[in-house]
Amino acid sequence: MDNRPENMIRITDSKLAQAFIDEQTAALREQIGDKKVLLALSGGVDSSVVAALLIKAIGKQLVCVHVNHGLLRKGEPEQVIKVFRDEMDANLIYVDATDRFLDKLAGVSDPEKKRKIIGAEFINVFAEEARKLDGIRFLAQGTIWPDILESEGGIKAHHNAGGLPDDLSFELVEPVRILFKDEVRVVGKTLGLPDNMDYRQPFPGPGLGVRCVGAITRDRLEAVRESDAILREEFAKNGLAGKVWQYFTIVPDFRTVGVKDGKRCDEWPVVLRAVNTRDAMTATVENVPFELLSHITDRIVHEVKGVNRVLYDLTPKPTGTIEWE
Ligand code: XMP
What we know:
By secondary structure, the protein is an alpha/beta fold.
């Protein structure tokens, strides 16, 4: 089905989701037959739900490729492997391309250049994996209905939209293309995806790369990843995880003077950001309790290497964007 029927009922519960799943699995089996399907599985909501749907419909005929570009959050690649390979028995290829990405990014401070390098290298890695495989006929994508509405003229069917090179031409499979995001989540829950995957906050494609401001270094990237993990853990413990729209940490590329163990130290600051928004065009700042901010600060300066200061970004959008880049 290419377009969302005008009278389609919003999928809000597991019964409606199950009906969608049954309909889609039958349609997918019909479309795919005994051929193979390739999917870039990022671990984000849309690609994860597409993977779960296809695993149900065609099992091992689906080949998932999870590319770790080294800019994922703490524990993410491990969770993708655990959920899809171990629990759903998926045909999953895991590629740790951390060194390739970080080597290409070394010394690059311009945000747009960083984004371009990450995007291009992602295609390179994915295309290399695709060329190693025989008999792939289809490419699955997590396109959703707002993507179609937003893209002028719509995405052409049966044509790679992912920017793959010409020698890799696949027919597209887009099993959630008529769904809105909230519906994708209900379908994901009904398919048994864990809540922290299904309801996870938005995460940019270039990942922690946009939060390690300036030229990315491995040590500063580690400070972003570890501080982000602490923030997420504390928000989850204190009931903010399901409430705040997006929250993360940023590490700028300068050091300030501090004191640790009675000695002067030149280390990075960590910036905390926690915002609420409807559509990411404007955003307000979450009023995080001061005691919690103090506790998070205490943990970060003691647990994260190379950090001696923590700041909270009080800037709404506008004037600040959500990410720092
Ligand atoms: P800004 O920083 O422009 O961000 O206020 C708005 C929202 O978009 C997310 N974002 C991205 N999402 N790919 C994505 O899928 C990207 O390259 C990207 N860059 C920013 C950002 O996290 C925020 O939610």
